[in-house]
Write a structure and sequence with these properties.
By secondary structure, this protein is an alpha/beta fold. It has 9 helices and 7 strands; from the N terminus they run βαβαβαβαβαβαααβα. β1 (7-11), α1 (16-27) and β2 (31-36) form a beta-alpha-beta unit. α1 runs parallel beside α2 and α1 packs across α8. The chain is globular, with a radius of gyration of 17 Å.
């Protein structure tokens, strides 16, 4: 198993990509701290991890609140003794169509606080434990909208560009401590967020047809890339932002 004996924190782990990554890490031998603002969802992911033979801990946490983040990391270390992997997956979306001249200040801050500040805070509190252990892996979940932009996504696209920039910054600062930092940039992935944004029925078929690989991605597609970045398979990879989008970025540059 590729993560045997390691401890991972996965944020936004109550559903979708975060749940798939938690299960993948657990099946590969990691103990997983399952973090989500929805505690019932985190507990359900924990049940699935335990059913798969893994070990974990469910933690309720708003990633944009530093005291809660600090305590979540402390609880992980108290239970498992260390932190080897941080998977910054928790994210906030926005109403499609919220361009710069339309978005409210409250919505702007909500999206950036979760997507950028949440990534910063969990990294801030995990890095000292990784330095003490002689290394670690941080994987940030950005988006293809962190590599390009699309009308109507003022806050979301800005936040995801910020996560890509923060990934590069941390890779440069902490490489000397054996800490590797990379970002996954998902394209269209089959999650509840996709459904909530109205991608159903005929629109879903049209979207899939427009992807070079002719399908919408799955949470397991993301989880496989997450395992690559979290394992020694990527031991000389840091500061990378990898699109996982069925080939769409080949079209957009």
């Amino acid at each position: 198993m590729k993560l045997q004996g390691q401890v991972a924190i996965v944020t936004g782990a109550g559903n979708g990509q975060g749940r798939a990554v938690s299960l993948k890490f657990a099946r590969e031998g990691a103990k997983v701290a399952i973090v989500d603002v929805e505690f019932d969802a985190a507990q359900e992911t924990l049940r699935q991890v335990q059913k798969a033979g893994g070990d974990g801990l469910a933690i309720k946490c708003d990633v944009s609140k530093e005291p809660q983040v600090k305590r979540a990391v402390e609880r992980t270390v108290e239970k498992f003794g260390r932190v080897d992997i941080l998977y910054n997956n928790a994210g906030a979306f926005q109403k499609v169509g919220d361009s710069v001249d339309a978005i409210s200040e409250a919505n702007w801050h909500r999206v950036l606080n979760v997507n950028v500040t949440g990534t910063l805070l969990f990294s801030k509190h995990c890095i000292p434990h990784m330095k003490k252990a002689g290394g670690g892996k941080i994987v940030n979940v950005a988006s293809t909208l962190g590599l390009m932009s699309s009308p109507g996504f003022a806050a979301y696209s800005t936040s995801k560009h910020g996560e890509v920039g923060l990934t590069k910054q941390m890779a440069l600062e902490y490489g000397k401590f054996g800490i590797r930092v990379n970002a996954i940039c998902p394209g269209t992935i089959d999650t509840r967020m996709l459904v909530a944004s109205g991608v159903v029925g005929e629109r879903r078929k049209q979207m899939a047809a427009g992807i070079p690989l002719r399908r919408i991605g799955t949470p397991d597609d993301i989880a496989s890339v997450a395992l690559f970045f979290a394992s020694n398979d990527s031991s000389f990879v840091s500061g990378c932002h990898l699109p996982v989008d069925g080939g769409n970025c080949a079209r957009w540059g």
